[in-house]
From TrEMBL:
It comes from Yinghuangia aomiensis. The lineage of its organism: Bacteria, Bacillati, Actinomycetota, Actinomycetes, Kitasatosporales. InterPro entries: RNaseH-like_sf (IPR012337). It comes from the Bacteria. This is Transposase.
């Protein structure tokens, strides 16, 4: 939906867009992966139980939660 709205508004997503997510089944499905590839979006999915790829994002979110 966000990609569609950006395209419609004339501000498409940039070429270095990364989707950060956990290893949930809906994020690792073939259809979702195909959609990311079609939209030129890189996936950032860690292994099960490994949150190292999202550590930077989690720490940034923590800053907002504290204030």
């Amino acid at each position: 939906m966000a990609l569609w709205r950006r395209r419609r508004a004339g501000t498409p997503a940039g070429p270095r867009l990364v989707n950060h997510s956990d290893a949930g089944s809906h994020y690792t499905s073939f259809a979702f992966t195909a959609h990311l590839i079609d939209a030129s979006i890189d996936a950032s999915i860690g292994t099960v139980g490994d949150a190292l790829d999202n550590a930077l994002m989690e720490s940034r979110i923590g800053l907002y939660k504290r204030s």
